[in-house]
Amino acid sequence: MLPAESRMRRSQEFGHAVRRGDRAGRPILVAHLKVEDEDRPPRVGFIVSRAVGPAVTRNRVRRRLRHVVRDRLHRLPRGSLLVVRANPQAASARSERLAAEFDIALERLLRRQAPKDRESS
After folding, report:
1. CATH code for residues 4-109
2. What's the pTM value of the predicted model, to 2 decimals?
3. Where are the domains of the chain?
4. Which reaction does it catalyse (predicted)?
């Protein structure tokens, strides 16, 4: 379970991160990251559509993704909004593969953020 202050709940936050944030796509998932200037803990949200499978499968995928993200929450910059969208292949992927795909996507997003952080300094 993610800490309460790190959970994204409002649809506006999801939309803001997806529309205005950077995107890193992988076969199993897509991650959207928007870093804002706020001094708040990073917030994370998950999108697991019906294309992934029935409710039981979607909930299992969401739980597994939450577990992966919880262990990496410290890597996100303060004030960031991260949305992780599961693709249909996530339903049959092993946890290790989910974690590896997320790590690759997150690394890409953080690399793109680094030059922007330096420009604003």
Report:
1. 3.30.230.10
2. 0.88
3. 4-109
4. Endonucleolytic cleavage of RNA, removing 5'-extranucleotides from tRNA precursor
